[in-house]
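Pilot study result, target chain (105 residues):
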Amino acid sequence: MASKSRKASAPLTFDLPVSLIAKMSACRRGHGLKTASEVVRFAIQTFDFETCEPARDPHRQISVRVSADQRAMLKRYAKSKDASIGELLRHALESLPLKPAKRKK
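Predicted structure:
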């Protein structure tokens, strides 16, 4: 039987940008830590979660109709850009001007 004083650990899986993984490697070397797990445990131990206010834009799922050609084009670009269709649509919607451009006379 395991002793009660020994603390159990469990795997935790999450996505990180590659740039942050590179920073973890640099921190590991800089702090003399042996593993990525040690870096994460150190970050958890030293971070002030009480004052942390993550900037999150609330999402809502919507359903729209697009042509078969547009759907195929989105799928093609999603695959070639290694992105989701939703991510591509967010970029497209964010690039829209609020008002149409004025016509030249």
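One observation from the pilot: Helices lie at 18-31, 36-46, 68-81, 85-94. A full batch analysis is planned for the follow-on phase.
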